[in-house]
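Fold it.
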Amino acid sequence: MAKKEIERFYVKEAAKSLGATWSLGLNRESPDFLVTEGKQTFGLEVTEIFTGPQNAAGAALKKKESNTQKTINALQAEYEKLNDIPLRVQLLGNMCIENL
């Protein structure tokens, strides 16, 4: 799923949890969305926050997530190369070696 699609999903879920009826404009860069509710319009920027330890290179959880995604992408590419079948990969659960 592309980054903008994920952001749009988060915004729709946020509106749903707030009981709001938001109309989202076209994809943009800054802010991510122009949201209209009734006669009101506001800009909405979607931001990820990672808690926990961090250093000059950034948050440890973000690094772990990035490494996990690289592993998933590599497994997907390996499968597609062997089987000549396009594959959409999502992993739910623990990325321990036994599950790979």
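The chain has a mean pLDDT of 84.
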